[in-house]
Amino acid sequence: MAHPSQLGFQDAASPVMEELLHFHDHALMIVFLISTLVLYIIVAMVSTKLTNKYILDSQEIEIIWTILPAIILILIALPSLRILYLMDEINDPHLTIKAVGHQWYWSYEYTDYEDLGFDSYMIPTQDLVPGQFRLLEADHRMVIPVESPIRILISADDVLHSWAVPSLGVKMDAVPGRLNQTAFIASRPGVFYGQCSEICGANHSFMPIVVEAVPLEHFENWSSLMLEDA
């Protein structure tokens, strides 16, 4: 859960998000070192009157400042490509959930069950109880089992939406007439919040996403109760 004055990412709750955090730190360190070197060169050039005639016209210097940036780009590109392929991997999911965006709420269908589905609306501010988060709580949470590969099929009923949960490292556009898919694994129990990340209209800010990861036994009990109510 994000908090005021937070500068970094939310704590990772999935293996892919952990990889993204590591890559972010890796790339940020490279940018920091480049910025420090450039700042040092600027300060040195401005603050001294000395000139080295061999640096002004040097084949070796030109070779270095051509090859070095290429090496840096490779050091950034290879981990990035690795994570891109990891994010596209969908290996034998234990559960498939279809998320459909509407103006302005989400509906979820557990396609492995015959008749398990519900709409998820934001809880109005006046109905919140102490401890709940304004504009982020939903009346029905998407409940999933912990440490199980989950496949999400994402679409929209009217306009463009985007299903995004930062802690899980998931963000996928919901396009009318198109079925996109992504996958994730919740590595620990908890409640993870997200929002529609596409400007979809006047009430764009009022369609939160709440994912609750629970142990498998609790998930089975929850699904049984939902099927009985249906």
Automatic annotation (TrEMBL):
Originating gene? COXII
Cofactor(s) recorded for this entry are:
Cu cation
Domain of life from the UniProt record: Eukaryota
Compartments, as annotated in UniProt: Mitochondrion inner membrane
Q: How is the cofactor bound?
A: Binds a copper A center.
A single GO molecular function term of this UniProt record: cytochrome-c oxidase activity
Q: List the membrane topology term(s).
A: Multi-pass membrane protein
Name of the protein described by the UniProt record: Cytochrome c oxidase subunit 2
| Single GO biological process annotation from the record | ATP synthesis coupled electron transport
What organism is recorded for this protein?
Sarda sarda (Atlantic bonito)
Any one GO CC term of this protein is: mitochondrial inner membrane
Give all residue intervals belonging to the Cytochrome oxidase subunit II transmembrane region profile domain: 1-91
